[in-house]
Write a structure and sequence with these properties.
With 387 residues, the chain is of the alpha+beta class. The chain is built from 15 helices and 8 strands. The strands form 3 sheets. It has a 4-stranded mixed sheet with strand order 4-3-6-5. The protein has a two-stranded antiparallel sheet with strand order 1-2. A two-stranded antiparallel sheet has the order 7-8. A hairpin with a 3-residue loop joins strand 1 and strand 2. The N and C termini lie far apart (131 Å).
């Protein structure tokens, strides 16, 4: 039997079952001064604990002195101690509620993830029972069941239905020093600290994002349970992008289209000036060449504007004749006409050149040099063709 039981404390006041009951009893029974400070009677001995100056303790009551008190006096001393602790009861209750809410949210996310995994397993088992001819299909099933050594993700990343609290997001970052980046189905596990080296980039801003809206503004979806962030981009250039965070050196991928690589740099918010000198000139030269070729092709398309032949009876014949003469790529007959035209140009040029030679020229009755009649006839035929 303890000292409190021997002193008869259990026979007075409320049962010592909870802090709330003691505080309730103390609030109704303990006398207070006009300033809200506990009023203490002169209990003699000079060693009793008293509260003055708004709750400061003048003396400390020893265990032996406490045990020597009567049960009623011990109860009063306990209630005085509880009065000092009463301001902290509300704060502890609020903190407990916040922790319970956070644990409930985490449990909800974990349960939803397990439910999704069970649904995918059931779908897979149903497919295993299908006949072989039906099971042999090129259509991929949802769930991405894969070999454990595969770099591709098998985790179904679903958008967060309810926006998680910033408190939960912050705690997730503190508990996980590493993060999984899922780019086009290829997973990369990196350190949060490494991504902080380029704070103005997309991944650098992801480190600083602390709300649900900020995170969705930088990635397509994410899962705090799996600590995974998904980016719906082609993963071909991401190795070079990620290597830039590790080493601070950015290189061009030769087998990739230079404009596609430029678009990826723009998406990840990395400036082209970070390219190494070994790749800077090559990158700029290839990019300018591709842009010029695209401009030329665009100009050729603009020139090939469809002509307006009106709405007459012979419109279709006019269009066929126009394509036959002016557009050799439209048909085989148009190509033949084009070859004949080129031949007439060559023959006319050769004939005019031969007419300048004195050995081929003819002379009139007065002895003046004139064109060769045969070459003149050929020239007339060529002129009539183009006319």
């Amino acid at each position: 039997m303890t000292a409190l039981e021997r002193s008869g404390l259990g026979r007075r006041g409320p049962p010592l079952a909870s802090i709330e009951s003691l505080l309730s009893f103390e609030a109704k029974s303990t006398p207070r001064s006009e300033f809200g400070v506990l009023a203490s009677d002169n209990m003699g001995g000079g060693n009793l604990t008293r509260l003055s100056d708004w709750g400061r303790m003048e003396t400390v009551l020893s265990v032996d002195d406490f045990q020597s008190l009567t049960g009623e006096r011990q109860s009063e001393e306990i209630f005085k101690l509880l009065a000092m602790l009463s301001p902290f009861a509300g704060e502890v209750s609020n903190l407990k509620g916040s922790i319970d809410a956070a644990l409930g949210r985490i449990s909800e996310l974990d349960g939803r993830n397990r439910l999704t995994g069970n649904l995918m397993k059931s779908e897979r088992s149903e497919k295993d029972f299908l006949p072989e001819e039906e099971n042999d299909t090129d259509v991929p099933m949802m769930g991405n069941f894969r070999d454990p050594e595969s770099p591709h993700s098998a985790t179904p990343l679903l958008p967060e239905i309810h926006a998680p609290d910033p408190f939960i997001i912050q705690k997730s970052r503190q508990l996980n020093r590493r993060v999984t980046l899922n780019v086009g189905g290829v997973r990369h596990e990196v350190m949060w600290k490494m991504l902080e080296q380029v704070p103005r980039s997309r991944l650098g801003k992801l480190v600083q994002a602390s709300t649900h809206e900020q995170i969705l503004g930088l990635c397509d979806t994410y899962s705090l349970v799996d600590n995974e962030y998904f980016f719906d981009r082609h993963p071909r250039s991401f190795n070079s992008i990620l290597n830039f965070y590790r080493t601070g050196k950015l290189h061009v991928i030769d087998e990739m289209c230079v404009l596609a690589f430029s678009d990826d740099l723009e998406y990840w918010k990395i400036d082209e000036v970070f390219l190494e000198s070994c790749c800077q000139n090559k990158y700029n030269t290839r990019k300018e060449h591709v842009i010029e070729e695209m401009k030329k092709e665009a100009n050729n398309i603009k020139k090939e504007v469809e002509e307006d032949f009106g709405t007459g009876k012979f419109v279709k014949y006019q269009i066929c004749l126009w394509d036959l003469i002016e557009k050799p790529h439209t048909s085989m007959a148009a190509k033949v006409i084009s070859v004949i035209s080129i031949a007439f140009v060559v023959v006319s040029t050769v004939g005019m050149t031969l007419n300048t030679m004195p050995a081929i020229q003819h002379r009139d009755a007065e002895g003046n040099a004139i064109d060769n009649p045969k070459l003149a006839l050929i020239e007339a035929v060529c002129i009539s063709w183009f006319t």
